[in-house]
């Protein structure tokens, strides 16, 4: 296959194929060669033209997913008729309910051996997702009296740091039991800010994702 | 200088010199050659025998400081006559008051460009410091009714994640104003668990450290 005249399409093709390979074999067990073998004749040179390394591909796969997730976050943020608290609840519910989460937890990259990915998740959470999506909702919540804080920016950061990083079973290898305990502490923390927004359904979904991740890691360790 | 027969001493010498160079020039502006030039004749080979890179040296410098800090944490944890809540308060106060903190904030490594350092701080906080030092104190606090939680392990993690990572001005380049706002949100979070343990003196010390860091970064950017 000759090099595509539309680099966007080539990049998307590489990311589609890479994501499927990561899903099937796990991130750690997929090599760049594996990805090339499934690219229908695209050369090694073409892939290295766009990506420096396998980690680079994972970052791009993850960026593309973030972009989709951000569309959902923006839609909830801008949805009329909901209070700040209701929007926060909807965001948590929708975020964990998205079917793509099953795929992400199946890919199960090892954040322990991948500090760039961890660092990028941490900075993206605090410097992009928190101010762009959670902050405006908390500001609305202060106005409609559904959130209790004088520091909306910092509360947005703290909530998202806890939800995206600390409660993420992929980062700290949490068991289902631990995910349950973290969820309960998260609930108590939120209530201190007037936010009774998590429920049993969310907890069960989070435990389901934890279990998907645990099984993927186990099969990847074999 | 011939290679030391006591590798411990050589390592300590390298770390002492490296730390002083980092202090004087900032981490980013110190090269391995700078460190070698101040090692009184120790060869390049000798330093590379112990450390692969400048980042490796920074990790070792940071590990040595963590070991000293852990002695202080253990002493407070094991101190008789204090309630769980009082021990937590003492730990925060002593941690930020230690004079070595001024040095650490002066070295001012850039965590943005140093994802390994960030990842190691994050994992150390959650997987070592929280279970080893904060968990036993919270368990004591549950018994003496000074801490309100059913999940001591997870609360220990969340508190330390907020204090060590989120409120650390070196990680998210916080200004003094932002440090103030984070501190206020941290206080509100802690109160949700029965913990009224932070005070104005701690806030002022944290702002002082933030200001040391900000100045170091500015002079390092010049």
Structural features, described:
The structure is a homodimer of 222-residue chains. Chain A has 222 residues and is an all-alpha fold. Chain A has 2 domains: 1-51, Arc Repressor Mutant, subunit A (Orthogonal Bundle); 55-221, Tetracycline Repressor, domain 2, CATH 1.10.357. In chain A, 74% of the residues lie in helices and 0% in strands. The first copy, chain A, is globular. In chain A, 39% of the residues are buried. The A-B interface holds A 111-112, 115-116, 118-120, 122-123, 126-127, 149-151, 153-155, 157-158, 161-162, 165-166, 172, 178, 181-182, 184-186, 188-189, 191-193 and B 111-112, 115-116, 118-120, 122-123, 126-127, 149-151, 153-155, 157-158, 161-162, 165-166, 172, 178, 181-182, 184-186, 188-189, 191-193.
**Helical residues, percent of chain A:** over 70%
CATH class of the largest domain in chain A: Mainly Alpha
**Strand content bin of chain A:** under 5%
The total beta strand count of chain A reads 0
Low-confidence stretches of chain A: none
The CATH topology name of the largest domain in chain A reads Tetracycline Repressor, domain 2
Oligomeric state, counting identical vs distinct chains: homodimer
Summed up, the domain count of chain A is 2
**Distance N to C terminus of chain A:** 36 Å
Largest sheet of chain A: none
Mean pLDDT across all amino acids of chain A:
90
Instruction: Please give the most extensive interface between any two protein chains, plus how many residues each contributes.
Output: A-B, 35 and 35 residues
The structure class of chain A reads mainly alpha
């Amino acid at each position: 296959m000759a090099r595509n005249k539309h680099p966007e399409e080539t990049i998307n093709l590489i990311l589609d194929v890479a994501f499927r390979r990561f899903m099937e074999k796990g991130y750690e067990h997929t090599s760049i060669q594996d990805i090339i073998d499934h690219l229908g004749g695209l050369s090694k040179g073409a892939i290295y033209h766009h990506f420096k390394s396998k980690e680079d591909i994972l970052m791009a796969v993850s960026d593309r997913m973030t972009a989709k997730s951000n569309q959902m976050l923006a839609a909830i943020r801008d949805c009329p008729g909901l209070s700040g608290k209701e929007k926060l609840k909807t965001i948590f519910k929708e975020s964990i309910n998205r079917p793509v989460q099953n795929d992400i937890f199946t890919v199960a990259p090892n954040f322990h051996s991948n500090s760039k990915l961890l660092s990028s998740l941490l900075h993206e959470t605090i410097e992009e997702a928190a101010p762009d999506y959670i902050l405006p909702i908390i500001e609305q919540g202060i106005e409609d009296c559904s959130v209790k804080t004088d520091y909306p920016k910092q509360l947005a950061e703290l909530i998202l740091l806890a939800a995206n990083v600390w409660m993420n079973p992929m980062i700290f290898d949490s068991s289902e039991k631990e995910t349950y305990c973290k969820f309960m502490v998260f609930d108590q923390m939120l209530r201190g800010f007037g936010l009774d927004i998590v429920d049993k359904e969310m907890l069960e979904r989070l435990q389901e994702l934890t279990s998907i991740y645990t099984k993927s890691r186990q099969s990847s360790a074999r």
